[in-house]
Amino acid sequence: MHVLAQSDLRLDASAIDYVLLAFYFLLVLGIGYLARRQVNTSLDFFLSGRSLPAWVTGLAFISANLGAIEVMGMSANGAEYGMPTAHYFWIGAVPAMLFLGIVMMPFYYGSKVRSVPEFMLRRFGKPAHLVNGVSFALAQILIAGANLFLLATVVNVLLGWPIWVSVILAAVIVLAYTALGGLSAAIYNEVLQFFVIVAALVPLTVVGLYKVGGWQGLVDKVTASPGGAAQLSSWPGNELTGFGDNFLSVLGLVFGLGFVLSFGYWTTNFVEVQRAMASKSMSAARRTPIIGAFPKMLIPFIVIIPGMIAAVAVTEMIGKKAGDPAYAGVKYNEALLFLMRDLLPNGMLGIAIAGLLASFMAGMAANLSSFNTVFTYDIWQAYIKKDRPDGYYLRFGRIVTAVATVLAIGTAFIASSYSNLMDYLQQLFSFFNAPLFATFILGMFWKRMTATAGWTGLVSGTAAAVAVFIMAETGAVDLPGQGASFVGAGAAFVVDIVVSVAVTYATQPKPEAQLAGLVYSLTPKESRQHSTTGDDAGWYRSPGLLAGIVLVVTIVLNIIF
């Protein structure tokens, strides 16, 4: 029996909580219905007709990432490891988001590709395109399953329904608005969900800090708990990386997480890039990830700190951390739910539950909307049914959204076997994102790189990450914590680069004329520029200035914590 089905974690919701929840669901479905009226072509459905302002796409950019994994997974990490979890934000997200806005977005938006695999098609040809399209589609189904599983556990805790019933109900609601209004429905709902999530987590953090005696009270309690004072400082983060040596731990964080995993995720993950591609201008597209970086810097304070509070204030979590056999079945993923159960009054509880459900639905809708785009354009249209009228692909996109939802219900049960879902997620990123980033960055800055090198590098990089995972699982190498995914990501990156370079020198490159707009040195500077008039005018809309502000604040946060 799953531990969440036990009565000790039933949230005591009242009529007011259910009314708030019902209102929220009606609002979400209403947005889907209204967005449907703007969908006339496949471009409207998959990329919102490239018509949205930067603040909308910027908030959606961050909300799409603020899924179940982020909220429950990071609070689980906060409970288990403490402040080192902030690396996922300050080292493992913000620098890469700024790089995406400043360096990569001009290529994506300027080349008018509809997806990341389509960029691969133009740069490396069909084999690399197909490998990327299939691996991305598979990753989205696995990640959507993780979001769906967490969504179901909350419904289970709230209503006491079996997990499988909760999984299906949750899936149907997300499917309804994504299939109705496409990317616009997903994006507008993500903006709404961003505010709902913040409205849920800020009061929980404030009440939690009050309960433990403020920040100093939390510091004292964490210092006295298993894991001790090391959990209060983000560096060197040995617990998180699984390395005993400080130098290796910092190296793992900066190279494995900060460079390979982070840049791999933020710059090549179509779930995120798709939001920026829906912007109405080059400047808005560049600002999208930079606007998203502002809230991203501050999210640790409302997801990690509640996890740390739960670890010292919730009976079950204290028992779990102390290794008490009576609490062996408790999972760190439940830290936030326990805290909500103990601290929030009715009414407030309804908002908090809506916030959690919002985060899962935002994450899952992002997975579905990017899956249907890549599957329709990059697999179905490119290789199976070519040259059909646009209406055919619009209808097919809606059907494929439904199929993806059914598949996600299946993968939800894979996710259910992990105690800390961040371990599962980082593992997936080391398989799919790390090798893609290596191929991408090499292909974008090295014009000599050949099409054959594109797909052979990808495949061998993925194989290297899978090999590290198998060795860690079988005990051939000892990599506790999230060390296996950091090492796997590093191995994938290095192997991909080595294989790509070797194969490039053994094969023929494309003519330079075919690489304009796809390789940095062959792209005219003016085509990478954005307008500074109309909606893009004003110093406060300068991507470079905004990125500079974010970078300075992030460095300060790293020094303080």
UniProtKB/TrEMBL annotation:
Q: Keywords in UniProt for this one?
A: Membrane, Transmembrane, Transmembrane helix
| GO cellular component entries | plasma membrane
Against Gene3D superfamilies, the record matches this protein to: Sodium/glucose cotransporter
Q: Which GO terms describe its molecular function?
A: D-glucose:sodium symporter activity
- What species is this protein from? Amycolatopsis suaedae
- Enumerate the subcellular locations listed in this protein's record, separating them with semicolons: Membrane
- Please give, as recorded in its UniProt entry, the membrane topology of this protein: Multi-pass membrane protein
Which family does the entry's similarity section mention? Answer: Belongs to the sodium:solute symporter (SSF) (TC 2.A.21) family.
Against NCBIfam families, the record matches this protein to: sss
Taxonomically, the superkingdom here is Bacteria
Looking up InterPro entries in the UniProt record yields: Na/Glc_symporter_sf (IPR038377), Na/solute_symporter (IPR001734), Na/solute_symporter_CS (IPR018212)
Q: What name is this protein filed under? A: Na+/galactose cotransporter
Q: What is the lineage of its organism?
A: Bacteria, Bacillati, Actinomycetota, Actinomycetes, Pseudonocardiales
Q: Which residues cross the membrane?
A: 15-35, 55-76, 88-109, 130-155, 161-180, 192-210, 247-268, 289-314, 348-375, 396-418, 424-446, 453-472, 484-506, 538-560
PANTHER family named among the record's database cross-references: SODIUM_GLUCOSE COTRANSPORTER 4, SOLUTE CARRIER FAMILY 5
